[in-house]
Amino acid sequence: xxxxxxxxxxxxxxIVDDSAENLTLLxxxxxxxxxxxxxxxxxxxxxxxxxxxxxxLVLLDVMMQGMGGFEVCQQLREAARTAKxxxxxxxxxxxxxxxxxxxxxxxxxxxxxxxxAPIVLARVKTHLKLKAATDFFEDQAIFLQQExxxxxxxxxxxxxxxxxxxxxxxxxxDHETGNHIRRTQNYVRLLAQQLRQHPRFCKELNEETIExxxxxxxxxxxxxxxxxxxxxxxxxxxxxxxxxxxxxxxTLGRDAIxxxxxxxxAPSSFLRLAREIANYHQEKWTAAAIRKD
Length: 293
Fold this sequence. Notes:
Blueprint: E1 12-16, H1 20-30, E2 35-39, H2 42-49, E3 57-61, H3 69-78, E4 87-91, H4 96-105, E5 109-112, H5 117-173, H6 177-195, H7 207-216, H8 229-232, H9 240-247, H10 249-264, H11 272-280, H12 287-292
Parallel strand pairs: 1-2, 1-3, 3-4, 4-5
Helix pairs in contact: 2-3, 6-7, 10-11
């Protein structure tokens, strides 16, 4: 007694032929191995493929009344939902030009009539295995892509939290810094978007870089954590010596970020822009220097 797989787990084969005799013969041959659907016309085959009962493989007669096998195969290939279903043509024609026309239409194989039961079973089994393997690798590729996107989002969250954690240090020292750094973020984004229109900067200032500039901007004053309170919080004008100390917040911020990068062991990390912003945000450029540069 032959073993019949669980019907729910069996692959589905659609037989398309306008001959009742051929349908009966092929159905009897395949029913113990696969879930079998039948269609006695090309139009009916397309209706089945447009329903929930999507086959894993199609055995398709070439010469039929009405819509022929080549046209059915072409329509299956043109629809995204059915484009990857393997089609094996059943034909009494053996001329090479007809075989080429079938392959051009999208068939994966030919079976010549009158059919041989062992050949039909072997060809169907082979192409269903190939489809199962293809589906498996496509599913794996989708899964891996989703995992990559998930890990990327997790890394992005870690980066964002790292930047915010460092920026919060500055807020603990200067009560005005909180609103200031948020305004600075918006200014940086607007300036970068405008500079992007300049030929000199359009290539470098892509969407990703502008977003990283926006996120890194809060770290521009991180070095203020190293400025003594009597200078940082002084209500009046700073003396020349005090101003000299205040100006060191740029290098203090740069060095703090460099130290963080060393811990990350990533000298070209996401903190690179933050390091440059902290170090250079107090530089003043004249219009003449900009034009010359």
